[in-house]
Amino acid sequence: MMDGGHQVLESPSSVHRLNTDCLTEIFYSIVRASEGDFDALDAYTNLLSLTHVCRVWRALALDLPELWGDIAFVSNKPDVFRTLLDRARDAPLYLPPIFPSEEQANILFGSPERFRVLERAYHLQWDPAVLAGKYLPCLESARLMVWSQHERYHPELAPMILPRIQKLVLRSFCIPFEAPNLRSLRITLRGQPINPEDLVSMLNSLPRLNTLRLGGCLPPSFVHNGRRIGPIYLPSLTMFRLRDGCAALTAFLEQLHPGNPDCGAHLTARRWADTSHAELGGLFQAMRRYLKTPSRDEMYMHLDPNKEPYIAAMRRVDSTNTAALTVTDEGVGVDAINPALERAASFSLDDRHVDLISIYASFLDQLSPSQVRYLRTHRSWQAVETGFPSSQIAELFGKPQFTNSLQVVEHGIAFSDRDGQFSEARMSSLFPSVPTLWPQLRKMTLSGDACLYVLHTSQGADALLSWLKAREGAGLHLPVLHLRAQAYTGGQFGTESAAQLSAWSEIRALVSVVDERKGGEEKQEECAA
Questions:
Q1: Which of 107, 178, 351, 522 is most exposed, with the fewest beta carbons within 10 Å of its own?
Q2: Using an 8 Å Cβ cutoff, are 183 and 166 in contact?
Q3: CA distances from 210 to 167, 170, 238 (A)
Q4: What residues does 450 pair with on adjacent strands?
Q5: Quick check: 80 and 57 in contact, CB under 8 A?
Q6: By the 8 A CB rule, do 513 and 481 touch?
Q7: What is the pLDDT of residue 336?
Q8: 234 C-beta neighbours (distance < 10 Å), count
Q9: What is the Cα–Cα distance from 392 to 308, expressed in whole angstroms?
Q10: Got the DSSP string for 449-513?
């Protein structure tokens, strides 16, 4: 740089004033900090950036082939791929979910023993014979799919040897494997059960397994040649999810002996048309050891007659301050990772138009009297033309598992349609026809459209007021009412009538109203007035 004809030496940037030891320590700190949820594309971008910071960091990066092994398959462009693969040298490789080139597929199928992680690559299916008998010393996680002609159980093949693997997903097929350190296993088949002796042997060889998902692969019985096969022991199991016919689910539960009855237990019954009420009762009895545990003191029920049933017994300690449960066409989910759902004991059906109240009542019968202290109900976002008769709701809510123990109830409703949004049939589940139910009740929360119903319609405010008055008359005071929803800002319901405002004056005199609506500050102030 020149200043007035004189050359002025630039001061080196701060990174160049650090000695090699400091630069090395900082480099490794940055690399270690990025070892959380791994994304190959982000790792590729970050690593290239690190190589351009200074010569020391470039040399360090180029001397760590394992960093390049994790990103070698991030691009299917031949020149980029070959450069990254050369830098990986003999380090274990990571296959991200990409559209692999022919060259990349050839390396994968020709040298599977080189890979540390095999994600589900698009349009990439395996021939099980390629995996049979393979020793895969580096593999830690794998999601494997096969061509449609191979979608079955292959007991005739030699087992894969997987000494380090911790997560294994076999989709639409299964072959034998040895994996003493496996933590998570998922197997799905298209209704072709695994031989019961093979399944018991497979699972008993996995002492560290903590997560198990099986779908369409369970045998209907664990009796072979008139002899019951030995039990399944999974001492480290913390969660299992099963999806199969009712008889197969029952048989597996009777065979399974986990060390912890508080582990998450999730069952989905298929082929409901072929299931009798006696078979369903047998399944719920097999679930009893997961339901009749004092720690599961919260109940979640999806009350929608036109949706698949879903009911879950949860631990309140898990559900506090977690995302709300939602039910969609894909099943039950959460807005975020929800330990309440993972650790619950739940039941759902792959069918609609069933006797939902009867199913829920049978499920509840497996719990101890007065076990449930917290109740959450939900109505889905889809259009629903019918509800349940109030007598059925009262019968369900009057089960001994609730009656003398329920302290907190939350009703959540979310409708997408507005025609007939607040019809009497739809809203009948909010306030039981027998107001003296739940003498220990101390808090009620109305969420979503349930909140809007009592705030913006006269019939909703009147229904709430009548219920509160009836409880007061029976000496059952409700201390707190929470209102939770997006505050109403549109003019859809118009200005509240004088009668509605009068009803809310009486409501506030009977119960402490806590307004938790988001947005719409004027409405919140009006409600709290």
A1: 522
A2: yes
A3: 10, 17, 5
A4: none
A5: no
A6: yes
A7: 37
A8: 21
A9: 18
A10: HHHHHHHH-HHHHHHHHHHHHHHHHTT----EEEEESBPP-SSSS-SPPHHHHHHHHHHHHHSEE
